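ok new one. same drill as before - structure tokens go in, u give me an amino acid for every spot. 698 of them this time. try not to just spam alanines like last time pls lmao
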């Protein structure tokens, strides 16, 4: 069946594109669209052509599975040029989310009408590329250089009302009937004597050269800092800037050249991997048969940082929340924090006051556990202590409905053990939110031995409602993210005791593209959190394991990071960002002497190599133990929860890109010094022997 059909309605030709599920502009769509346009261009009776895609959305962009492949089909840019050059009025009737190539097709039409809830955008930058079908040239002509670059550099979606004000669309229809909207608008244009209006010939928004020059200076200055490690944002700016100095065909040719350069960039490979990985993370066995229960009422145990964050995430999802705290003082503190967060959102125009009041009406707090008896799901977010958590779950077991799902927001603890105090452990699951839980996207869904498929399905449904990125994990100490973090943290402590500066380590990690350095993260989370974990694990530590006491000395002084204004860095009103705590180096020197270690110098490469090797090492072990279902899930965890640069794809994808043989070679070298810590994982050895990579396991 053809994905592009057309019919003639008197003097108007209607083109309908249908390529489910999202009307991606695949090779078949491009072939059909070009053939149809060429056929209709020869019919002199036709005065107007209406392009529609009447199902889920107007054309939603390129089929990214085709990127980098040689496909025998016309490129979209040529089709857009053909559409624009027609001597008949061309109307694009938009609805849904015309993004990327979809918006480029719409901009090549002469007029655009949109359904009320339409959102438009050019998000190619998120895939490491630029709009390659005329987007960098037509969008500035419609809305001006500043707005066009803002849209292309952020990838944000612009709602219909704002798009109308900017000139990207011409009319907002009164309803969502995309076919009727397009036909009625075309009839009006014919009746009122309108003619074809090529976007390429619109000059009003790009006529003030001085204003554009000033804007570009500011934009490039910001981009040099914000996108210093990235390729495609600078290519986008370059395409716009150079295109304004060329005639339109030359500008389009230049855009295409820059597009091809983006395609060849390793960042494109990493970003597209991230794109697919985040769509594959819901392919878990339990979702084949599991049926989620309907969630309306949620209970949250604990009103600290995690409890308040999870409460807000639930309220934002439209769920009724009851919070349980120990006393009235703690309740007031939690309420004040939640209220202040929404007040800030009002101040920043993210929501209005009416919306704030509506959201706050979903929240209540009490000290009475019995108030939880009508809840559909309870999330426990108390202190990371097994005895306390088991006590809470014992209470919930007595009070809650028998089909109420019981979730623990633990970062490390054994969910199987927590489930032992519940009569029906099939309803127990781990939901590891990341702080701040109302903002951070990652949600590790920890499936215990007896967790039912329905419980897992409900957890994934909750993640969807909360707009989280869920990743399934099995039960182990630290699950996926924190277990890998523990490995590279210990490896980092080894380097510091051997002579590396914590501040040098952080700089190398930031230069690599991570959002924060390792010791910055410790200061942000609170050094006492890791200290408590080390104490918990101490009785189980093997006598031959190398243990570095530097972080313990820091914590013994009460230097827990931002919360105490002092950690590895100093914090305060008159203190510059990333000011090192000078006493840290003193502690390091003292501990090196105590351990009998002669410090050596570390260069950037050695620090980065050990950081990556430790991550890949533990990631491989996690795959071997089936804690993570596939390597791409590990990548999703780290790009969404740990600040690993998305454009590098995640630690497992990055290992593929640099070569697993190189990773294994480094691990073998490190194992000569510390065979207990660096004993090579068998799975990694097998993959190298078989000349395979992690992607082969996805």
């Amino acid at each position: 069946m053809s994905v592009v059909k057309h019919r003639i309605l008197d003097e108007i030709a209607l083109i309908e594109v249908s390529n489910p599920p999202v009307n991606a502009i695949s090779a078949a769509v491009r072939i059909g669209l070009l053939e149809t346009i060429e056929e209709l261009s020869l019919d002199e009776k036709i005065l107007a052509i209406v392009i529609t895609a009447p199902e889920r959305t107007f054309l939603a962009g390129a089929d990214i599975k085709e990127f980098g492949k040689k496909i025998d089909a016309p490129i979209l840019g040529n089709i857009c040029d053909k559409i624009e050059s027609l001597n008949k009025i061309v109307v694009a009737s938009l609805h849904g989310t015309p993004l990327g190539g979809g918006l480029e097709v719409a901009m090549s039409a002469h007029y655009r009408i949109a359904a009320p809830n339409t959102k438009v955008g050019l998000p190619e930058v998120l895939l490491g590329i630029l709009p390659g079908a005329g987007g960098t040239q037509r969008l500035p002509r419609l809305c001006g250089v500043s707005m066009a670059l803002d849209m292309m550099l952020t990838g944000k979606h612009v709602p219909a009302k704002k798009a109308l004000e900017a000139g990207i669309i011409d009319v907002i229809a009164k309803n969502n009937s995309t076919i009727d909207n397009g036909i009625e608008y075309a009839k009006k244009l014919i009746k009122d004597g309108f003619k074809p209006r090529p976007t390429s010939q619109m000059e009003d928004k790009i006529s003030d050269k001085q204003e554009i020059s000033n804007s570009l200076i500011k934009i490039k200055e910001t981009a040099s800092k914000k996108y210093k490690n990235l390729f495609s944002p600078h290519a986008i700016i370059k395409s716009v800037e150079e295109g304004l100095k060329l005639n339109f065909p030359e500008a389009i040719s230049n855009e295409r050249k820059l597009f091809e350069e983006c395609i060849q960039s390793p960042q494109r490979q990493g970003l597209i991997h991230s794109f697919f990985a985040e769509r594959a993370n819901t392919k878990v066995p339990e979702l084949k048969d599991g049926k989620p229960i309907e969630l309306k009422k949620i209970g949250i145990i604990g009103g600290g940082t995690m409890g308040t964050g999870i409460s807000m995430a639930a309220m934002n999802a439209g769920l009724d929340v009851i919070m349980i705290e120990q006393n009235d003082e703690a309740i007031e503190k939690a309420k004040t924090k939640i209220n202040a967060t929404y007040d800030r959102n009002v101040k920043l125009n993210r929501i209005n006051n009416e919306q704030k009041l509506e959201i706050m009406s979903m929240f209540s707090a009490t000290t009475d556990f019995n108030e939880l008896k009508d809840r559909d799901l309870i999330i426990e977010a108390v202190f990371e202590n097994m005895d306390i958590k088991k006590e809470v779950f014992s209470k919930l077991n007595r009070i809650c409905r028998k089909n109420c799902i019981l979730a623990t927001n633990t970062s490390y603890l054994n969910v199987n053990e927590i489930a032992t105090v519940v009569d029906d452990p099939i309803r127990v699951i781990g939901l590891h939110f990341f702080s701040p839980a109302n903002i951070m996207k990652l949600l590790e869904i920890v499936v215990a031995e007896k967790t039912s498929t329905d419980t897992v399905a409900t957890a994934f449904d909750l993640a969807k409602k909360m707009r989280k990125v869920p990743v399934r994990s099995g039960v182990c100490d630290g699950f996926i993210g924190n277990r890998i973090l523990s490995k590279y943290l210990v490896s980092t402590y080894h380097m510091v005791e051997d002579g590396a500066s914590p501040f040098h380590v952080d700089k190398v990690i930031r230069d690599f593209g991570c959002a924060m350095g390792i010791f910055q993260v410790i200061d942000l989370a609170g050094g006492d959190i890791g200290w408590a974990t080390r104490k918990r694990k101490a009785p189980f530590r093997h006598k031959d394991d190398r243990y570095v006491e530097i972080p313990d000395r820091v914590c013994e002084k009460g230097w827990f990071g931002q919360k105490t204004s002092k950690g590895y860095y100093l914090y305060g009103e008159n203190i510059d960002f990333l000011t090192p705590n000078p006493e840290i180096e003193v502690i390091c020197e003292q501990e090196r002497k105590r351990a009998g270690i002669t410090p050596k110098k570390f260069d950037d490469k050695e620090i980065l190599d050990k950081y990556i090797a430790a991550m890949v090492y533990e990631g491989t072990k996690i795959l071997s133990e089936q804690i993570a279902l596939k390597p791409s899930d590990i990548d999703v965890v780290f790009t969404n929860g740990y600040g690993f640069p998305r454009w590098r794809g995640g630690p497992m994808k990055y290992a593929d890109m640099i070569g697993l043989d190189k990773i294994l070679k480094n691990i073998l070298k490190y194992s000569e010094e510390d065979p207990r810590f660096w004993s090579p994982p068998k799975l990694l050895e097998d993959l190298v022997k078989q000349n395979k990579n992690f992607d082969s396991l996805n």
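The CA atoms of residues 495 and 606 lie 10 Å apart. and btw The chain has a mean pLDDT of 95.
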